[in-house]
Design brief:
By secondary structure, the chain is an alpha+beta fold. The chain has two domains: 2-109, Phosphorylase Kinase, domain 1 (2-Layer Sandwich), CATH 3.30.200.20; 114-223, Orthogonal Bundle (Transferase(Phosphotransferase), domain 1). The protein has eight helices and eleven strands. The strands form three sheets. A six-stranded antiparallel β-sheet has the order 1-5-6-4-3-2, sandwiched between helices. Strands 7-9-10 form a three-stranded antiparallel β-sheet.
Length: 259
């Protein structure tokens, strides 16, 4: 367990939270990973449990690579040093069993927010898209690339002057690299937005980066189409695997166990 110096007094609360994670807390997401909100005194904390760790990754995360929880914690500290918004990291916890990493958890402070995808569903206005384009430009300028860049992983708040502030979550897959134009284009392709919204965002991005807007937009849209085709093929492969390959492997494994 690693706890931030400002939150060492929560050692007991954090230990109890992890011990009772399965039965307590308010669920806000339970898909690939499970995310819950826990309250302590007058404060709220977000606890993310990373699930579905393969046997190979249990060994890799134990000895060769940092766990997703640890990467989330360390990446959050780095983002805050760069003046990039993200929920403040409180702690990460790793549970091991022998040679394997069994479970890992990332704990952060709760932020009042609205996700960018929800905002765009209700109010798809140009000022917001331009502000998000400027935020993403600033992100890349500071050599930060989010490899799970979706509007659901961008949080937004609005100050009393009507200005938008943005923060990043789900940050275990950050990379810190020089912002070449190719990297910028590929990273922005991960945003799935309607064409009209996407055009406003990348036009603002290109303006901030002092790129030729039409040239950059052409490259962006071409690469976006390629990425969408790749994603569809990946989904098709997974569906075919589940339907045809997985049942065969299961039957053969069962047969070998009987023999």
């Amino acid at each position: 367990m690693k706890i931030h110096l400002d939150y060492l007094h929560l050692n007991g609360f954090i230990a109890d939270t992890i011990d009772n994670f399965a039965t307590q807390g308010h669920i806000i997401q339970n898909h690939r990973n499970e995310i819950k909100i826990f309250e302590y005194q007058t404060n709220k904390f977000v606890v993310k449990s990373f699930k579905k760790i393969t046997i190979a990754n249990r060994i890799i995360y134990k000895f060769l690579r940092k766990s997703k929880a640890r990467r989330s914690y360390e990446n959050a500290l780095r983002l805050l040093d760069l003046k990039i918004g993200t929920p403040f990291p409180v702690a990460y916890v790793e549970e091991s069993s022998g040679l394997f990493l069994k479970n890992s958890y990332f704990i952060s402070c709760f932020m009042e927010h609205e996700t960018a995808d929800r905002y765009l569903t209700e109010r798809p206005d140009a000022p917001f898209l331009e502000a998000m384009g400027a935020f993403l430009y600033n992100l890349h300028k500071k050599e930060v690339f989010h490899f799970d860049l979706h509007t659901s992983n961008i949080l937004t708040t609005k100050d009393h002057k009507g200005n938008f502030d943005f923060s990043l979550v789900d940050i275990n897959r950050l990379k810190f690299k020089k912002p070449t134009q190719q990297r910028r284009v590929k990273n922005l392709n991960r945003l799935f937005l309607p064409f009209e919204q996407y055009s406003i965002l990348i036009s603002k991005y290109a303006e901030m980066a002092e790129f030729d807007v039409f040239s950059f937009a052409h490259k962006q849209l071409y690469q976006r189409k390629k990425y969408q085709v790749f994603k569809r093929l990946k989904i098709l492969y997974k569906d075919l695997y589940k339907k045809y390959v997985a049942p065969v492997i299961s039957r053969n494994t069962h047969k070998e166990a009987i023999d």
